[in-house]
Amino acid sequence: MKLEGCFYHMLKEVQHPHAVISGEDNSRRFTTVVLSNPPTVILNLIQELSFRIQLLPDNDIFKAHFPGYPITPGAIQVRVATELLQKSLRSMQPAKSPANTPTLRLSSVSNLKFIAPIYPDDEVTYSFTNIKASDGTATTTLEISAHDGIRSKMFLEYAII
Fold first, then answer.
1. Under a CB-based contact definition with an 8 Å cutoff, are residues 159 and 107 in contact?
2. pLDDT tens column, 90-116
3. Which of 67, 95, 110, 140 is the most buried (most CB within 10 A)?
């Protein structure tokens, strides 16, 4: 699966421990689930996702934010997170029913911490943990890191529509 956004390209595919046959992988056990489950069930089974992406330094956003010292805006960090989660959820739906994939609409961002800038040439890892879903809502903790440490942390809440 290759995911492309207007601000990044995928370097490492997402790991879905439940999308393969039951067994063990790196000493972690996993079990196959039926992918036609409702999105809240799928999100609760995922629990953790990790994506490695390369930002696209030629994007116009870096010319405006900020001239002479381009860094990735917080709004773009959140947008990329939403795209990654949405595409991941879509990839877990049966091939015959992509139209039934729900949409994640951002409801709130809290506990937001910008620890260090994310520069246009950075390769970063988006790590989603504590993914939970119920009653039309999904939440997750996001940590964005690069080779030299954590760049951003946040708690995201989505409406599942």
1. yes
2. 776 655 555 667 789 999 999 999 999
3. 140
| CA–CA gap between residue 138 and residue 106 (Å, rounded) | 9
Give the C-alpha separation, 16 to 88, whole Å: 9
C-alpha 54/C-alpha 30 separation (Å) is: 29
Burial (CB count within 10 angstroms: exposed 0-12, middle 13-18, buried 19+), residue 104: buried
10 Å Cβ neighbour count for 150? 14
What's the number of CA atoms in the CB half-sphere (13 Å) around residue 107?
13
pTM value is 0.76
Q: pLDDT tens for residues 10-26?
A: 555 444 333 322 333 33
Q: In this structure, what token pair is assigned to residue 40? A: 């809240």
Alpha carbon distances (Å) from 34 to 38, 39, 72, 77, 98: 10, 11, 38, 31, 15
Question: Could you give the maximum distance between any two Cα atoms of the chain, in Å?
Answer: 51
